[in-house]
Amino acid sequence: MTLRPQLRFSQLALVLLGLTLAAILPAKVLAKDPSLSELVKVQKEKREAFMETFNELVEDKDFAYECRQVWHAISHVRTPQCKHAFNWRISSKIKSKDLRTYPSTPRYVDPMIQKLEKNAEFQERQASVRKVFNQMLKDHPSLTNSYNELMTANQAYQRAHVEKYGKASKFYNQ
User: Fold this and answer.
1) pLDDT digits (tens, 9 = 90+) for 68-92
2) Helices in the chain by DSSP H: which ranges?
3) How far apart are CA 127 and CA 120, in angstroms?
């Protein structure tokens, strides 16, 4: 009685040929582009590093960034928002004045942004912070590096967003 081999010669030759080709041919390594969520994390890290550097270097603490948990209108969701200290201070003045004047008006009826833009103190402080920021960029290379890293992270996110969503991207044609 003879035993039949499990593989025929042609199948065995193909297996051996495949093993030798696999050993000879270089393997292709494909680099995966970072996902949007990874780019958002990098963007957040760079933003926090920039604000930290800015807060350390700024002399007038009214220009320093403050982050707070904020409720959106008609929502129970709290999200972090970072603004200059003067922005928070002036906003709270306007809100408290509105609550005393119109206590029953819902907060989503009259947007805060329009009132801030009309506020003279806010406009003056906004112009001052721009001047101070531009001067700090010239005087402090660490702030300039941090700012450039933030802008690079923002641009990488925007490019990836356009690549993923095309014309539906909010950054398309910017």
Assistant:
1) 998 877 778 888 899 999 989 988 8
2) 9-24, 36-57, 85-101, 112-118, 120-139, 141-165
3) 11
Burial status of residue 11 (CB atoms within 10 A of its CB: 0-12, 13-18, 19 or more): exposed
DSSP assignments along 116-132, one per residue = HHH-HHHHHHHHHHHHH
Q: The whole model's pTM is what?
A: 0.70
pLDDT tens profile 7-62: 455 565 555 555 555 555 555 656 677 899 999 999 999 999 999 999 999 999 99
Q: Which long-range contacts (CB under 8 A, 24 or more apart) does 140-146 make?
A: 140/57, 142/53, 142/57, 143/50, 143/53, 143/54, 143/57, 146/46, 146/49, 146/50, 146/53, 146/54
